[in-house]
């Protein structure tokens, strides 16, 4: 791989796409696969596959930085903060429980999914299907009040159910955040709590996926490949910070239907592009 100016621009663009689509419920993997149809990096297929997963580490770092006060229990030292510390440990146990279904299914079916479902037609179907689901669920939610308002109110039962929905995101075009948010909304979690739990759940899930791809590929990078990874991660981190801030402010006043409509329109465009 030669990382010339054009390749650097491609890496930056892919980092931007990752940062935007990882946290919005519109499928980052689906977008990355579609973008790759038009903007092809000059790298081996094995490295390219690994690159798309590993630059997610930049997006993960954005969550860690932005939610540090909520996710790091060891910073609470005085007695007055002991309850907060206990709640944080409890939250991480719930996140661990929620990770189990996707971890098992990912290990069992990762190779099959990569080989047979990474196609534009599968992506388009999933984009449209979950777009419709978002709209239907949000219309239904207008008639009921959430039963779980805050992150600390999420029970172990709720966590495992959300984790079960995350399994659906193994299919390209579904969206990991989209699947978990849909699951959370269905079982009565508020939009803000659903988004925050999705962010927390992403940390071990995406770390595990990135580690799996790295171990599978190996650590024998050329200097150009290493630069591509670092640059892609840095761009994904910066964009993710902005997108997370936007999303958390947006859902305090609006629902997720706009993302549902976006998915439907994009899914139709993918179908048209595929058949042309």
Folded structure, characterized:
This protein has one domain. α4 (56-66) crosses α11 (223-250) and α9 (176-186) packs antiparallel against α10. 75% of the residues lie in helices and 0% in strands. 39% of the residues are buried. It is mainly α. The chain is globular and about 55 Å long. The longest helix is centred in the middle third of the chain and has 35 residues, at 82-116. It contains twelve helices and no strands. The chain crosses the membrane at residues 50-68, 89-109, 115-137, 158-175, 224-247, 259-275. Its EC number is 3.6.1.27. This is Undecaprenyl-diphosphatase.
Task: Chart the SSEs and their pairings.
Layout: H1 5-21, H2 28-38, H3 45-54, H4 56-66, H5 68-71, H6 82-116, H7 120-141, H8 156-166, H9 176-186, H10 191-217, H11 223-250, H12 257-275
Keywords: Antibiotic resistance, Cell membrane, Cell shape, Cell wall biogenesis/degradation, Hydrolase, Membrane, Peptidoglycan synthesis, Transmembrane, Transmembrane helix
GO biological process, one term: response to antibiotic
Subcellular location: Cell membrane
